[in-house]
Amino acid sequence: MLITIKTELTRFKVKAGKEAKVEEWLRFLNDNMHETLLTLENEKMYVEVIFKEQKAEGEFLYWFSVQGTGGQSVESSDSRIDKKHIEYWNECIDESTKPIDLDPKVVMIPDKIMNNMN
């Protein structure tokens, strides 16, 4: 069975003054991890990792993901976790700064793991 996956790493700028709210957001996801992981199934999200970086020009969040095709968008979810996640996103992510998508050149996923993605 051929599985199509999308591998992404994207950088988003945090709005100035929202650093404490970002910490609350990340804590919310970690504190509700069981329920958060359940939301990933409908999205066909196999791996999702959020990184944080502080630079001279501000704070940035990086999203790394490995996702199948045909999943539900987070915006169309009825999950309380996803609704809160979008609320934090809207409050914290600086939409006036263009996100930076890094270009994957090599994706290494062993067959034994790829075969379990369905």
Structure commentary:
- The protein contains four helices and four strands.
- Strand 2 (45-55) and strand 3 (58-68) form a beta hairpin.
- The radius of gyration is 15 Å and the shape is globular.
- It has 118 residues and is of the alpha+beta class.
- Helix 1 runs antiparallel to helix 3 (80-92).
- It has a four-stranded antiparallel β-sheet.
Major sheet characteristics: 4 strands, antiparallel
Q: Over the alpha carbons, how many angstroms does the gyration radius reach? A: 15 Å
Helix content: 25-40%
Cα(first) to Cα(last) distance is 9 Å
Strand content: 25-35%
Mean pLDDT, nearest integer?
93
Q: Uncertain regions: pLDDT < 50 for 5+ in a row?
A: none
DSSP helix count?
Answer: 4
Oligomer, anyone?
single chain
* Gross morphology: globular
